[in-house]
Every structure is written in structure tokens, then in C-alpha cells.
Amino acid sequence: MGxxxxxxxxxxxxxxxxxxxxxxxxxAYVLSGPPGIGKKTLAREMAKxxxxxxxxxxxxxxxxxxxxxxxxxxxxxxxxxVPETRSVLIDQIRAIxxxxxxxxxxxxxxxxxxxxxxxxxxxxxxxxxxxxxxxPYAVIIMTAGNxxxxxxxxxxxxxxxxxxxxxxxxxxxxxxxxxxxLPAGDPAIAFSEGIPAKALALVDNKDFGRTRELVFSYLLxxxxxxxxxxxxxxxxxxxxxxxxxxxxxxxxxxxxMLVLCGKTGSLINSDKFDKLMEYAKKNSIQGLIKKIExxxxxxxxxxRYMNHQLAVDLVTLAPHKGTNLTExxx
Length: 330
Ligand SMILES: [Zn+2]
Fold this sequence. Notes:
With 330 residues, this protein is of the alpha/beta class. It has 15 helices and 5 strands. It has helices spanning 10-21, 39-51, 65-71, 90-100, 121-132, 152-155, 168-177, 187-190, 196-204, 207-220, 227-237, 241-260, 273-281, 285-304, 308-316; strands at residues 28-32, 78-81, 109-113, 138-144, 159-162.
């Protein structure tokens, strides 16, 4: 079976194309998942498949008038709604309802409501009427960070597709499609957590490599040399690097644990294998678990009230001084 031009999310793509080919496409879909996972991209690909005039096939042809005008952003049978201010407002939904009642000259009409979980309750109730009795030619696709935030009456009338994280190989292919050809095991792929937008941001983040170098020098220092202060100074001056630094530290602690367990097949920092071995030798699994707990403590306090510099000092200085982070009076 051919499939729409989307990398990954195989189960969803197969279910959708199968329904579509057999003439059983739903009138409403919700795509949910964390930010950056590709909800909007997949929704647009589904919309284009539905809009293509050479159907029903599993993939848009890319050549017909429907496909061409869709690509140019000029297809009048496709309407995309983006939240105004922080919410999707009732007026935006009313505009859909006005348009949906007009039968298209040919093909289907597709509506994409972005961040549908930001619809006000009034907007959701307004949309509900259409979901109960949709015209046969109309399909409404919604994206949502949190499916559960939609009213239950909406949820019960849609097909829900929950996007899952991508494999490293899929992330590599997605990056390649964006013109970034990286080798397997590249840190940007390993640190992306299976989220394409995160991988793309890491590729473009020039400081990420530098942060990693400093973190590994710090981990291997004996607490007396310059590496501690270098990292401390760097983080004091680069506020934005602290979240990355915490992620890198945590990944190194986890990798070191895996090394101690003899499981070296799925290390995030596989490109720094020798350094990980050296670091792991100096640590115990229990010590590493404690370090991760302490790190998470700093992370959650940082979100609420902790001062940036105090967090930097705790992370870069306290561990070598034998201070237990959780016992420091904050
Ligand atoms: Zn087409």
C-alpha cells in the first residue's frame, strides 16, 4: 500500500489511508501529541490527500488542480483556523459553519483547526452541532496538545489519532528532508527524544556542542581544576544554556548507569564512549541515581522560584564539595 508523504506515524497513516480508500473516512479527526511532534504537518498531509481530485487513492497525486492550488495555499476548499490571541474563538468557528453549508463544485471541503484544545467552551459547543450532522463532503481535522481538554461531547464524535515519538532513524530521515544530513548517532538525534522540532532546534543551536564539551570536562574533573569554574562561568553568562546543561548531565548520569550495568547498546552519548567509561568507573549506580534525583530537584525549583545563579552554583559546585543538594537551605 502506498502512503501519504509523511515520515513515521505508520499506524496512523495506515489507518487513515485504509479508511479513506475504502470510502470510510471519518468526518472529524483529532491529532494529539506533544509540541513539535508534527501534528500540523500530518494534518496538512491528510487534508491534501482528501482534497486531491485524483482519488480515492492513498496519497495525493501532487499534479491535479486540487493538489496544486493546495500547495500554493490557494485552495478554496481548504480552510485553516489558527488560535486568535490565546483561544480559538466562537467567531472563528461560526465562519467555518457559514462556509461548510455551501456545497463545493467538486471534491471535498476540509477544515483544519489548529490547537483545538484552545477552543473556548462556547466555540466547542458551536462546533458540536456540525459534528453531529456533518455534510457528506466535509471533513474537519483538529490538532490538540491535550486531547482530554476537549469537551467529552466533542471527543466522542471524532477519530482520535495520538502521535507517538519517532525512532532515531525516522528523525534522521526528517532532518534529511529539511536539508540536514546527519550521521546515525549524532547528538542532535540522540537528544531529540523522538521529537522532530527538538532535533531541528538542536541542529541549529550552535551552543549545544560547546555546552556538551564543558559538561564532560566538568564530569571528569576531580573538583580542583578549572573545569568546574569554566562551566560555572559559562552558565552564569549563558542563561539559555542551563536547561540544555541539565539535560546533558542527566543523559550522562543515565549513560554511566548503563555502562555500569554492562548495557552499552543504547547510550545517548555514544560518541563520548571513552569519557563515559572513565566517568562510570568513578561512580556507583546508587550515587548516580542520587545525582539524577538532585538534578530533578533543581529543575523543579528552577521552574518555580529558584534564582538562576543559585541553580548554576548548586549544579556545578556542590556535587564536588560533598554537599547534598537536597539539604542545602533554599
Ligand atoms: Zn491531486
